[in-house]
Amino acid sequence: MQPGLVWGCARTASGTTTLIDDCDDREDASFRWLHLNLADDRTQRWLERSTSLPRPIHDLMLARETHQQVMVEDGIVGLVLQDFERDFDAAETSQIGALHIVITPGLMLTGRYHPIRSADIIRQRIAAGYDVCDGAAGLNLVVGTMVDGLGQHVHGLAHDIQTAEDEFLNERMSPATRDLIAVRRRGARLHRLVSGMRATLVRLEKDPDLPEVFAPVAERHVQRLHALDTDVASTQAQLRQLRDELDLQAAQKTNQNLYFLSVISALLLPATLVTGFFGMNTGGLPFAHTQAGTFVAALAAVTSSVATWLLLRRRP
């Protein structure tokens, strides 16, 4: 396999899409798609040698920035979209990476500096027979795969929040604060991904230089992302409500404990005063020389506590 090429495909004259192992394979095909490793220095040299991209598009393809952006120059579309990275021992991580996309009339280039989860799924779909006939079909496959993955994350987030709500409403063990914080972080990360991708595709759709063939693709996925963004906002609202209810429950428990401690302190205070009085080491202390002195002092302490309790019960 040629250095820098992760995978590639080409549409043959028979109308089928086949995988290729070299950047220069099937140069006579009507459409080719090359997925490149941008961290390989040889990729940059190949781009300089074998493509004639406008300088802004070329710089966008090799940019290290991961924020989502779009550019249309001389009919060539350039995009940077965010997705979750993958690792050698994990199909997906919590780290967010960027997929760089360049679409020309006969060639589509995608690249990443770190492995991206959606790129493997795209390759599997192409190997399973997905027909990539042109750049619009390629863009539709890329964005559709990313949106599908984000939809799975949003549904998983909603399921976790509903499970936590059920535990709370059924008066079982309340969800741990650490788990809710992790869910909140996932929701914030998904909101940034979904809203950022949606805004990028809206800018692409409204770009006056955009070829007409890409407009339906952008419009279709903008609507899907809008629905996902609404779902994310709904789950975040559910999470805030659940946190408010948990905070209210914790505040009620704290108030109950404080009330119990206050009552105990009020009941013990008169008894403490009585025992303190009879414990003074001074002359002329009453009941000091009688056999019933201790009983009288204990009775006085208990009586003062009972009187305090009755007084508290009578107060509104």
> Which superfamily, in CATH terms, is the homologous superfamily of the largest domain?
CorA soluble domain-like
Overall pLDDT:
86
Q: Return residue spans where pLDDT drops below 50 for at least 5 consecutive residues.
A: none
Tell me the number of strands.
Answer: 7
Q: What is the terminal separation in angstroms?
A: 85 Å
What does this structure look like?
The structure is a single chain. The longest helix is centred in the C-terminal third of the chain and has 64 residues, at 215-278. By secondary structure, the chain is of the alpha+beta class. A hairpin with a 2-residue loop joins β4 and β5. The protein starts with a strand and ends with a helix. It has three domains: 1-133, 2-Layer Sandwich (Beta Polymerase, domain 2), CATH 3.30.460.20; 134-264, Magnesium transport protein CorA, transmembrane region (Methane Monooxygenase Hydroxylase, Chain G, domain 1, Up-down Bundle), CATH 1.20.58; 265-314, no CATH class. The model has no long low-confidence stretch (mean pLDDT 86). It has a seven-stranded mixed beta sheet with strand order 2-1-3-7-6-5-4, sandwiched between helices. α4 runs antiparallel to α5, α5 (177-206) packs antiparallel against α6 (215-278) and α6 (215-278) packs antiparallel against α7 (293-314). The chain is rod-shaped, with a radius of gyration of 35 Å. It has helices at residues 41-50, 55-62, 117-127, 135-169, 177-206, 215-278, 293-314; strands spanning 5-11, 17-20, 31-37, 69-73, 76-84, 96-103, 107-112.
